[in-house]
Specification:
alpha+beta; Elongation Factor Tu (Ef-tu), domain 3; OB fold (Dihydrolipoamide Acetyltransferase, E2P); six-stranded antiparallel beta barrel; five-stranded antiparallel beta sheet
Length: 387
């Protein structure tokens, strides 16, 4: 009986000792934690998705209607400014131009005739003036009759009127020449409208008509772009777009070339955001436009917004009560655990937040939440894991 009581006592003591040991392990033994270390020369980036686009893109066609008889460009061709891309049948317009040219020549001939009439009228006027002067002197000397003198005077007045009429005919002839030349220039310009030329150094991205097509005025024949204006149109969440500025560097990764990271810069920030998706439209210009690009291809962009000389970061999973620029973290100070509300700054692409204030001096911020964290408990800072 005594032996049985002894065994029970030993077991009870063992249980008590186990409970005490367990309590010490759970409540009193220092807990090992990992803490954040200051990082130097940190690059803060903003991520967005976009597509490859061209800033300068045009649908070009003829200013006049007609039948397409000549095509000199196709999809993918690169053409210099002024290069002929297509022509319309211009035979009818050529005939109109020839008529306008003949009208100019006829008007110039009529001007020469009018100028000759002026010379003739002036000669007749000079003769009539001379006769009239003689008749007037003879009439004063009663050598000739007054009637003859009056007839000579009337003849001089008629000659003056003939000169005026001839000069008017010259003015009319000159006006007719001006009108004929204007008509000729209009017909010549219309002939030029039958030729379609590249408006700038361009790349053809679509050909919408083929030979023999009857076109209305202004109907597109080609879609062209200026390949020097190719960029990425990126969409950035408004909550992350506040620090983006024109000129900031950016990395670009095209979907077709996932292993290649291209460089570029922010070229434009559109003043109007997408009201539905709450995204800001940002244009990223390539530092060097790829030789082979595809409009509409998806692209990832990483815009460098800030360089931090030194910063302290903590993972989002280690922050409790995360709110707008604030959160609660565990810290180690004087070997003991405490909780503190801290101010948060930039959010990194890997989900870490910058701590900008609130952590006491000579304290370390815990980067992993685990069981056993309790205010006042002793803590031991574990060595950082190597990657």
């Amino acid at each position: 009986m005594k032996r049985k009581h002894l065994i029970l006592s030993i077991v009870a003591l063992a249980l008590v000792a186990g409970v005490i040991l367990g309590a010490w392990i759970l409540l009193l033994r220092p807990v090992a934690v990992q803490v954040a270390r200051p990082e130097r020369d940190v690059v803060v980036q903003v991520f967005g998705l976009g597509t490859v686009e061209a800033r300068v893109q045009s649908k070009i066609g003829f200013k006049v209607s007609g039948v397409l008889v000549d095509l000199r460009a196709d999809v993918g061709d690169r053409v210099p400014k002024g290069a002929v891309l297509a022509r319309l049948d211009s035979r009818e317009q050529g005939a109109r131009f020839a008529r306008a040219k003949a009208s100019v020549e006829q008007a110039e001939a009529n001007l020469q005739k009018a100028l000759a009439n002026v010379e003739k009228a002036e000669a007749n006027r000079a003769n009539a003036r001379s006769i009239n002067e003689r008749r007037q002197r003879l009439a004063q000397s009663n050598i000739t009759s007054v009637e003859t003198a009056d007839t000579a005077k009337t003849a001089e007045s008629s000659a003056n009127a003939d000169v005026n009429v001839a000069n008017s005919e010259v003015a009319v002839a000159r006006a007719v020449i001006g009108d004929a030349k204007a008509q000729k220039e209009q017909e010549a310009a219309t002939i030029d409208f039958h030729t379609l030329a590249a408006p700038y150094d361009a790349m053809v991205i679509a050909r919408q008509k083929e030979l023999g097509s009857a076109l209305a005025a202004g109907e597109p024949v080609f879609n062209v772009i200026d390949p020097a204006t190719v960029w990425v149109l990126a969409f950035i969440d408004e909550s992350k777009a506040g620090e983006i500025a024109v000129g900031q560097p950016a990395g670009i990764v095209l979907r077709s070339q996932p292993g290649r990271r291209m460089t570029g810069r922010v070229a434009r920030i559109e003043p109007e955001s997408d009201r539905v998706n709450e995204e800001r439209r940002i244009q990223i210009a390539f530092d060097r436009i790829p030789d082979n690009f595809n409009l509409g291809e998806q692209a990832e962009v990483h815009i460098v917004t800030v360089h931090l000389a030194e910063a302290l970061f903590v993972p989002e999973a280690a922050i409790e009560g995360l709110g707008k620029n604030v959160g609660t973290v565990w810290i180690v100070r004087d070997g003991r655990l405490e909780q503190h509300k801290v101010a948060l700054g930039h959010r990194m692409l890997d989900g870490r937040y910058e701590i900008t204030g609130g952590a006491p001096d000579k304290s370390a911020v815990v980067t992993q939440l685990r069981g056993g964290l309790r205010a006042g408990r002793a803590a031991r800072i574990a060595e950082a894991r190597t990657q």
